[in-house]
């Protein structure tokens, strides 16, 4: 399709569309070579687009196959032990890829019970490693664990118009939209974002992905102050690439080095949600029933007096 | 904030319909709590146009307008009054948006009005069939069962003869009709004496059979999930989330603990008493009875959402020709009072949901005001209604006076 020649902007756009076409239409193998003269480190990239049998596999799905509900301790165990076996190790050349994923910004946008969690993820890869990476198909996986008091609507996330930048989004855990938080369990949202193109054109300070996740507040447990504060922490991030193994394709994971993963407490966002006050319980119930009673009596009286119904004693 | 025009419920129906089209259970779609019949009706959404359902609901809306005219013409209401009554339904912005937003209530209203037409024509079998179907589809019409049974008075419903409808013109200017049959033995006893008449048994049997057949058929197809979601959920529903009902805050504050049997009974009692009294007083004037029952049912329900208002909006045009109330100024006051109470509630609801302020107490008080407004308007309508039985006696019959 392409021969060795200089790329123009229109060629880059064609490549992007072709990549999406290949992915969406499950094209098995497409190989082309790009010449990118402005790139500092190299000028020839070989890119292979292949379907990856693990590409759609959700990490949270594996988590819920092993655990019943979402707890921070179980999740951290899972990430530490279960996923360590899938880390990219023993790759020929034994190169240290130097992948770093970090949250540049985390904030809550909007007011009231329906808001958006805005997060900005930075991906950095060691410059020496990038030429070796394009032989693989890579995606960035972001897992946003949600606290008990909020939920994400899976049907809203499936809306294709809003979320075409993502390869896949899914919600795991308790997705009941109606129950209050004290009768619910936690949930998590997993995003899969195509990283190939970003890696291709990565600058020195890395590349950024912006996520906007619509969230809704559940009804909170009663609180004396009238508000309940819910804290949402940073997401967990990793990169998954498909590797040409000896016999067949497989995928492996890149995670940020452990010392980088220590989350600072300032990286959480707090959401103040109105909650009922226990002090109201007594008089609210009494006045509710008294009002219902008064209403009933008025209607009964009016009906009997004005329906033309005359009780005659004969 | 984007305001979506299409109701969330429409997306739920459409998803359930596409699940059904691919041979799966519509209950795989969470929050689908309707009869599979609705999903079945919306199957063309998947392969013709996504708006098929909306066309269906809007067409039902137009049928309701037509049925209003038919019913009023059956009672020989003058043309101008007929037209005004139809306009009240067709041009009510609340009701015509309901269908176009994708809500299924217009179908329910059309079926209820068709049942009234059949009963007015003396067609008990057809009325019973549609009644069984509508109770399966949407449980609330079960409140009309007793008034219909009382309405099927053997003095009017005799085999071989069509019942005689009393005309609108003869009802006007008459002194308030005294229901002379009501003695200290009460109308229930009177009804019980002649309970087992042909038309009553026929109605009960046919509607019961249709209901059980539909329920049984879908139970066979979809199992307990159908029973839980489509039937039991509605009977036991207590939603702590804010809605127009006066009970919402009480439910939220007590959600963490199990309510005692006494508390559950106390909250059910007002509903039960009001329904019983309204039926006993107004059953002979069937449409008015349906109307007041529906208003009261919605007002005293544990959960009230805006779509429930359509249930009595379709009956309002049918009772207005018999009302002494003038639009200026009593009628206008009632309209403004009802809309004002609703808007007041909505303002507090907006502050809670979209501004995140804790105004639960104020919202609860707004719902108390809304109940007060509904009660007041109901009483005013009862006060100004020209009550009269729908049927009149055949001239060769003697009126029996019970002593």
Automatic annotation (TrEMBL), chain A:
It is found in: Endoplasmic reticulum membrane. Pathway: Glycolipid biosynthesis; glycosylphosphatidylinositol-anchor biosynthesis. The keyword Membrane applies. Signal peptide: none annotated. It holds the Pfam family PIG-X. One of its GO terms (cellular component) is endoplasmic reticulum membrane. Keywords: Endoplasmic reticulum, Glycoprotein, GPI-anchor biosynthesis, Membrane, Transmembrane, Transmembrane helix. It is a single-pass membrane protein. GO terms for biological process: GPI anchor biosynthetic process. The chain crosses the membrane at residues 281-306. Belongs to the PIGX family. PANTHER family: PHOSPHATIDYLINOSITOL-GLYCAN BIOSYNTHESIS CLASS X PROTEIN. This is Phosphatidylinositol-glycan biosynthesis class X protein. It comes from Gossypium davidsonii.
TrEMBL record, chain B:
Pathway: Glycolipid biosynthesis; glycosylphosphatidylinositol-anchor biosynthesis. It is found in: Endoplasmic reticulum membrane. Keywords: Endoplasmic reticulum, Glycosyltransferase, GPI-anchor biosynthesis, Membrane, Transferase, Transmembrane, Transmembrane helix. It is a multi-pass membrane protein. The keyword Transmembrane helix applies. The chain crosses the membrane at residues 55-72, 84-117, 129-152, 201-222, 272-292, 304-323, 329-351, 363-382. It holds the Pfam family Mannosyl_trans. GO terms for biological process: GPI anchor biosynthetic process. GO terms for cellular component: endoplasmic reticulum membrane; glycosylphosphatidylinositol-mannosyltransferase I complex. Its main location: endoplasmic reticulum. It comes from the Eukaryota. Its EC number is 2.4.1.-. One of its GO terms (molecular function) is alpha-1,4-mannosyltransferase activity. Catalytic subunit of the glycosylphosphatidylinositol-mannosyltransferase I complex which catalyzes the transfer of the first mannose, via an alpha-1,4 bond from a dolichol-phosphate-mannose (Dol-P-Man) to the glucosaminyl acyl phosphatidylinositol (GlcN-(acyl)PI) intermediate to generate alpha-D-Man-(1->4)-alpha-D-GlcN-(1->6)-(1-radyl,2-acyl-sn-glycero-3-phospho)-2-acyl-inositol and participates in the sixth step of the glycosylphosphatidylinositol-anchor biosynthesis. Belongs to the PIGM family. This is GPI mannosyltransferase 1. It comes from Gossypium davidsonii (Davidson's cotton).
């Amino acid at each position: 399709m392409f021969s060795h020649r200089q790329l123009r902007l229109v060629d880059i756009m064609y490549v992007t569309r072709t990549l999406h076409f290949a992915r969406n239409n499950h094209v098995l193998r497409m190989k082309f070579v790009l010449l990118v003269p402005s790139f500092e480190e190299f000028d020839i990239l070989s890119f292979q687009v292949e379907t990856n049998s693990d590409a759609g596999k959700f990490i949270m799905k594996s988590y819920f196959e092993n655990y019943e509900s979402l707890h921070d301790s179980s999740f951290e165990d899972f990430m530490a032990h279960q996923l360590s076996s899938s880390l990219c190790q023993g790759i020929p050349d034994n190169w240290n890829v130097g992948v770093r994923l970090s949250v540049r910004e985390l904030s809550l946008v909007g007011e009231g019970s329906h808001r958006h969690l805005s997060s900005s993820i930075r991906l950095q890869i060691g410059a020496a490693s990038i030429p070796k990476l394009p032989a693989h198909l890579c995606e960035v996986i972001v897992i946003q664990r949600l606290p008990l008091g909020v939920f994400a609507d899976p049907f809203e996330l499936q809306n294709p118009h809003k979320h075409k930048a993502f390869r896949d989004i899914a919600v795991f855990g308790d997705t009941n939209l109606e129950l209050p938080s004290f009768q619910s369990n936690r949930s998590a949202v997993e995003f899969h974002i195509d990283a190939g193109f970003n890696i291709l054109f990565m600058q020195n300070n890395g590349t950024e992905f912006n996520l906007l996740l619509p969230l809704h507040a559940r009804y909170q447990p009663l609180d004396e102050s009238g508000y309940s504060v819910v804290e949402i922490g940073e997401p967990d991030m990793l990169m998954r690439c498909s590797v040409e193994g000896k016999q067949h394709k497989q995928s492996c994971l890149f995670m940020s080095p452990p010392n980088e993963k220590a989350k600072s407490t300032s990286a959480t966002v707090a959401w103040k949600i109105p909650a009922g006050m226990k002090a109201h319980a007594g008089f609210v119930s009494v006045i509710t029933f008294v009002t219902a009673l008064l209403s009933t009596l008025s209607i009964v009286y009016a009906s009997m007096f004005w329906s033309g119904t005359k009780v005659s004693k004969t | 904030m984007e305001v979506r025009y299409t109701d969330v419920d429409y997306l739920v129906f459409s998803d359930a319909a596409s699940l059904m089209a691919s041979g799966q259970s519509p209950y795989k779609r969470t929050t689908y709590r309707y009869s599979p019949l609705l999903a079945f009706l919306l199957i063309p959404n998947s392969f013709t146009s996504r708006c098929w359902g909306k066309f269906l609901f809007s067409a039902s809306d137009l049928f309701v307008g037509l049925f209003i005219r038919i019913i009023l013409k059956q009672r020989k209401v003058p043309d101008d009054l007929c037209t005004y009554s139809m306009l009240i339904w067709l041009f009510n912005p609340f009701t015509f948006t309901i269908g176009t937003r994708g809500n299924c209530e217009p179908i329910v209203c059309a079926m209820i009005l068709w049942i009234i037409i059949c009963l007015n024509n003396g067609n008990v079998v057809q009325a019973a069939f549609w009644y069984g179907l509508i109770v399966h589809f949407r449980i609330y019409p079960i409140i009309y069962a007793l008034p219909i049974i009382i309405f099927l008075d053997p003095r009017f419903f005799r085999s071989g003869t069509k019942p005689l409808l009393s005309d609108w013109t003869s009802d006007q200017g008459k002194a308030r009709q005294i229901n002379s049959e009501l003695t200290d033995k009460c109308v229930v006893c009177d009804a019980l004496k002649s309970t087992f008449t042909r038309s009553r048994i026929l109605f009960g049997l046919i509607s019961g059979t249709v209901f059980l057949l539909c329920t049984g058929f879908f139970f066979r197809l979809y199992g307990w999930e159908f029973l839980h979601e489509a039937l039991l959920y509605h009977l036991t529903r207590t939603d702590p989330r804010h809605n127009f009902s006066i009970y919402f805050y009480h439910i939220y504050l007590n959600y963490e603990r199990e309510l005692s049997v006494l508390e559950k009974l106390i909250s059910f009692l007002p509903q039960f008493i009001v329904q019983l009294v309204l039926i006993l007083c107004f059953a002979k004037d069937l449409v008015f009875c349906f109307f007041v029952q529906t208003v009261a049912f919605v007002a005293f329900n544990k959960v009230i959402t805006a779509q429930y208002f359509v249930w009595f909006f379709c009956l309002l045009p049918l009772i207005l020709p018999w009302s002494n109330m003038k639009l200026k100024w009593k009628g206008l006051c009632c309209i403004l009072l009802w809309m004002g109470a609703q808007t007041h509630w909505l303002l507090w609801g907006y502050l809670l949901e979209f501004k995140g302020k804790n105004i639960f107490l104020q919202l609860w008080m707004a719902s108390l005001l809304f109940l007060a407004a509904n009660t007041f308007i109901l009483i005013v309508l009862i006060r100004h209604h020209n009550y009269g039985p729908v049927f009149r006696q055949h001239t060769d019959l003697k009126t029996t006076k019970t002593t």
